[in-house]
Amino acid sequence: MNLIHTFEAVQEASLQLLELTDKDINKILHAVADAAIEQTDFILSENLKDLDRMNPANPKYDRLKLTKERLQSIASDIRNVATLPSPLGRTLKENTLPNGLRIRRVSVPFGVIGIIYEARPNVSFDVFSLCLKSGNACILKGGSDADCSNRAIIHVIHQVLKHFQLNPHIVELLPATHEATAELLHANQYVDLLIPRGSSNLIQFVRQNATIPVIETGAGICHTYFDKEGDLQKGTAIINNAKTRRVSVCNALDCLIVHAKRLHDLPQLCAPLANSHVIICADAPAYAALQGNYPQELLKMATDQDFGTEFLDYKMSIKTCSSIEGALNHIQHYSSKHSECIVTENPTNAALFCRKVDAACVYVNAPTSFTDGAQFGLGAEIGISTQKLHARGPMALEEITTYKWIIEGNGQIRKP
Amino acid sequence: MNLIHTFEAVQEASLQLLELTDKDINKILHAVADAAIEQTDFILSENLKDLDRMNPANPKYDRLKLTKERLQSIASDIRNVATLPSPLGRTLKENTLPNGLRIRRVSVPFGVIGIIYEARPNVSFDVFSLCLKSGNACILKGGSDADCSNRAIIHVIHQVLKHFQLNPHIVELLPATHEATAELLHANQYVDLLIPRGSSNLIQFVRQNATIPVIETGAGICHTYFDKEGDLQKGTAIINNAKTRRVSVCNALDCLIVHAKRLHDLPQLCAPLANSHVIICADAPAYAALQGNYPQELLKMATDQDFGTEFLDYKMSIKTCSSIEGALNHIQHYSSKHSECIVTENPTNAALFCRKVDAACVYVNAPTSFTDGAQFGLGAEIGISTQKLHARGPMALEEITTYKWIIEGNGQIRKP
């Protein structure tokens, strides 16, 4: 392994983080935020090198681009992380046994967290600040498209760390190569947790190839079920918000499931979608209900591929079902277990939906667009987990800590 | 995949578990315990078929063997699981946002848990009862040595499930073949969590090959550090208990680290070990301190291989260090992050040890032999996790649940 010395250095540096207080950490975060502003010209000029290599028509171009305003917003996010309560040193459980042994479960950092991401240089600042706040060292593997930007950002962070006499290896940026990714995926001895952030291809690749523990983030195939007893006004607002607030994010609506007894309300439920030019791929009953009541150029007959698809675009499918069980079956089959919603005034149906739907976030009469760490009041977000192990849904500082058991005795021994 | 229909059937059956109350579950557990006793003759006769194929000198023979008494103890363990509080439906977090959205984090089953284990048929009952109590369906892949025993046990459980009109697919035993293991490791669509239980080779194999989330259990390379300010009497009892209570378990002491200033106390610290014929592989200073004070036939010069080894036998190594930092470095290098202990009367050293040692369980003045779900007051144990993701140390019912976020609104929408 070519990167073994890098990995060793990060692991070694992670031990130094155990000696910092939350106050120390917050001081560093503020200094990094200041540096991000002070070094705006340097960061933007390096960012320009990356932008020059990319076609502005590429949808990645906008995500890659940094501006003075974006750096200000990044700095303000870093300062916000400093205001959050420390996730470390919390006693999660406490118990004194009859023999006098005192057993405590206490939150601690993971140690070293690896992040694999694509062409979004803001992630470098973002991940560093969340990892530092939670006492973790981090190994970043960014996309090659953003390499100059990422190097500039890490350079700025390293300068701050040196100023505080901290080991700069608490954050390392790997070469933007496939070889580096391959080594990181198997660095079991050095990396405690791996979080891939980006396209579903990237996440799939990491899941298939990593031998270190992974938290999957991302892909959201989200349904909204409009029940027989759904409120029309609420449903109209919820569907429009879930689909059109931001189509490029994972919590956006992909499929509306409508109860057959409410097909006559479909035109009204979908009316605001036409303003955003949302293309609707409807099954036969829904198509019939919408024909003549929705712009014909935006209305298509659904094919099998339109179900179970994450559109990430002004596009959605509609499925008709004859019962809540039908909706549950459709969701069970096609959901990516991210965010699912029911619109109903019937509390029994709402409770059934909440119990039966297997997803990170289950909504009653509110749009899936709320799935977000900040919206949930978590203060920050490192990703949205779509797996069930360790963390589910929005992940914030608590979710990038683990715990240890501390057992204090006075010479007790265990009987046979 | 040949087993795809089995996996589908288990996933389908897991949904039925969501409809059971804790009272229902406890009734089934009691019925399974009763059946284990009533069908003792059948289970033992099938167990005999497995035993007949194995050489009684094989260390696995004893683990494979079931007896009337062992079945009674198994039944009593199952009844004990029924007495534990349900881990399901607990509100872990609750928050009402200014816009009126009510957000709750509620504990729920994983869904389907896969367990890969070796020749211990009691694990079949054990895992089934813990999975049922936590609302999970389970897929068991037992070792071929125990196949007749496992089939008999699952047959008995299936009879009980049928009596309760429950879908028997909530527990399935896979064929005891490598092909079945290979399919299980990649059943991402059907299995939510995989727990390997057994030798470190098995665990390593699963870690390297599984694409579904895994919790590693098992291997414990455990150290006890006797500090410069350690109490001699406590240390003597702790070291003897940690090494000799049961040598075949993962929490047993493998390496004693002794402060150089206390080498003169080594003969007394090790005296009780001679009664159990513990072989000591000592480094040069420790060897010199013990020579003439410990049975010569049990004393060996340590080689490099004696450090970082899980002995699982009446054997241990001794390392001398000149400071607590030396002990911490040795542990950092060789520990499997399972259980580590310091014997000291100095609270600063105890605190430093607790902060710096990266292990599931960190002990002060108590032996590592306490690492056990029942000892920790967790009521049951499905394994001891040696990873940091999701669960660390003893895992009980809570650790085989996940959570979902339930968000209840009244038509709120998210602003841009």
Explain this structure.
The structure is a homodimer of 416-residue chains. With 416 residues, chain A is α/β, with parallel strands linked by helices. Chain A folds into 2 domains: 4-216 and 387-407, Aldehyde Dehydrogenase, Chain A, domain 1 (3-Layer(aba) Sandwich), CATH 3.40.605.10; 222-370, Aldehyde Dehydrogenase, Chain A, domain 2 (3-Layer(aba) Sandwich). Helix content of chain A is 39%, strand content 19%. Chain A has a 7-stranded parallel β-sheet, sandwiched between helices. In chain A, strands 5-4-3-6 form a 4-stranded parallel β-sheet, with helices on both faces. Chain A is globular. At the A-B interface, helix 10, helix 14, strand 13 and strand 16 of A face helix 10, helix 14, strand 13 and strand 16 of B. Chains A, B: It is found in: Cytoplasm.
Write the layout of secondary structure elements.
The structure is a homodimer of 416-residue chains.
Chain A: H1 4-17, H2 22-38, H3 40-52, H4 60-64, H5 68-83, E1 91-96, E2 102-109, E3 112-116, H6 122-133, E4 137-141, H7 147-163, E5 171-173, H8 178-185, E6 193-196, H9 200-209, E7 222-226, H10 232-244, E8 253-259, H11 266-275, E9 279-282, H12 284-290, E10 299-301, E11 315-321, H13 324-334, E12 339-343, H14 347-356, E13 361-364, E14 383-385, E15 393-395, E16 401-408
Parallel strand pairs in A: 3-4, 3-6, 4-5, 7-8, 7-12, 8-11, 9-10, 9-11, 12-13
Antiparallel strand pairs in A: 1-2, 2-16, 14-15
Helix pairs in contact in A: 2-5, 2-7, 3-7, 5-6, 10-11
